[in-house]
């Protein structure tokens, strides 16, 4: 995108500005929120602040389908640690309940 003066404006991907997202101890990115959709090995997590949704593929041993469905139904707050870019095939390496 060019400005009127001809200079370029940097395009910032929307996932870089997400609140409450950081790097965990293992170098994984993380997001805090509530699971809104569970479909096989995929989940959608909606952030506590801002309400932005993130799509993830859940690693097999990160959480069982039963756990994910219980957390979704109970509107339980979770932390998802992941690799990759949300909405573009990010892998949820850890899904944990947080108080």
Shape: globular
CATH superfamily: Nucleic acid-binding proteins
The strand count comes to 6
- At the first level of CATH, the class is Mainly Beta
Give the distance, in angstroms, between the N- and C-terminal Cα atoms. Answer: 43 Å
- Trace the largest sheet across and list its strands: 2-3-4-6-5
Rg, Å, rounded: 15 Å
Overall pLDDT score:
82
CATH domain fold name: OB fold (Dihydrolipoamide Acetyltransferase, E2P)
Runs in which pLDDT lies below 50 for 5 or more consecutive residues are: 12-21
Throw out a few tags for this protein.
5-stranded mixed β-barrel, 99 residues, mainly beta, 1 helix, globular, single chain, OB fold (Dihydrolipoamide Acetyltransferase, E2P)
């Amino acid at each position: 995108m060019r400005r009127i003066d001809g200079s370029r404006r940097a395009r910032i991907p929307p996932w870089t500005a997400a609140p409450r997202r950081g790097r965990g101890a293992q170098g994984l990115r993380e997001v805090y929120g509530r699971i809104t959709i569970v479909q096989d090995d995929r989940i959608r997590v909606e952030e506590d602040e801002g309400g932005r949704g993130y799509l993830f593929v859940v690693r097999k041993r990160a959480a069982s389908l039963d756990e994910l469905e219980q957390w979704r139904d109970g509107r339980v707050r979770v932390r998802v640690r992941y690799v990759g870019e949300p909405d573009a095939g990010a892998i949820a390496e850890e899904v944990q309940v947080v108080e």
